[in-house]
Design goal:
CATH architecture: 3-Layer(aba) Sandwich
Radius of gyration: 18 Å
Strand content: 15-25%
Order of helices and strands: EEEEHEHEHEHHHHEHEH
Number of strands: 9
Helix content: 25-40%
Strand order of the largest sheet: 1-2-3-5-4-6-7-8-9
CATH superfamily: Alpha/Beta hydrolase fold, catalytic domain
Shape: globular
CATH class: Alpha Beta
Length: 274
């Protein structure tokens, strides 16, 4: 393990043929933190110290992103979820809370679906449970990613971050192409959502890439929104829904409201099984 920032300790975990980069901030109960597409640990920026104030945050650079070099394997959220479960085992954590934004939110969801034994609590930020849940214009925009967009995207902050930390900067067109392929894959995890046992926090912006109604649908699949809670807290779901005001898909992961919402949920005692 080598020092990489003033507050983080970085290292690589050999999992599933991948040298998966992770960086640890703070001490206490573990929280795995997963960035969005074309991002890295740094995507959470100033929120990292707040999230790590009372826990051990383990930020991960997913396959082909940041400091984690790509391998000859498709970019699939299911496969990356297997990487996260293997990382939890590699670090001998037993169980960890898992939080992800956008692409990372899908990986977090799949980690809870495919490896429920390693997830204590789950926080999913700005990620629908089926592709058709997104607004039609968003789904259409996803179809445009491919090798033809790699060059124009070099003007973006996402490329600037990638160029600064990636082990093979020349792999940028490959990442854009593989992300385009991943975004064109249809998915529907509706039935899987209903089977998630980990208490789950859903966080969305009120101007996110999918309508609030879809977030409510996901919440109901988790057992929420079924009736009024009692004055003593009875009748409440083990899962929670937060809609951040004045927030888009692009600002939800750095909203100043996010740390308080997440830490309140993670710090609460584990409820009885639903």
């Amino acid at each position: 393990m080598t020092a990489t920032t003033q507050t983080g300790r970085g290292g690589y975990a050999p999992v599933n043929g991948l040298n998966l980069y992770y960086e640890i901030f703070g001490e206490g109960a573990p929280l795995i933190l997963l960035h969005g597409g074309f991002g890295a640990v740094e995507m959470f920026g100033p929120l990292l110290p707040q999230l790590a104030a009372g826990r051990q945050v383990i930020g991960v650079d997913l396959q082909g992103h940041g400091r984690t070099a790509d391998i000859d394997r498709p970019l699939r959220m299911e496969l990356m979820a297997d990487d996260i479960a293997a990382l939890i085992q590699h670090l001998r954590l037993g169980q960890a809370d898992v939080m992800g934004y956008s692409l990372g939110g899908g990986v977090a969801l799949q980690t809870a679906i495919r490896h429920p034994q390693v997830v204590r609590k789950l926080a999913v930020v700005s990620m629908p449970c089926r592709r058709s849940g997104s607004y039609p214009e968003v789904a259409e925009a996803m179809l445009q990613f491919g090798p033809q967009t790699a060059e124009s995207m070099k003007q973006s902050p996402m490329y600037q971050l990638y160029a600064a930390i990636a082990p093979r900067v020349e792999d940028w067109p490959r990442l854009v192409s593989k992300m385009g392929e991943a975004l064109r894959v249809d998915y529907d995890w509706t039935q899987d959502m209903a089977g998630i046992q980990a208490p789950t926090l859903l966080v969305v912006g009120d101007a996110d890439s999918f309508p609030p109604q879809h977030a409510v649908e996901m919440f109901q699949l988790l057992g929420g929104g079924q009736g009024a809670g009692g004055w003593d807290g009875s009748g409440m779901s083990a899962s929670q829904l937060a809609i951040l005001p004045g927030t888009t898909h692009y600002t939800s992961c750095d909203s100043p409201l996010l740390p308080a919402v997440v830490t309140s949920f993670l710090d609460a005692p584990l409820p009885t099984a639903r």
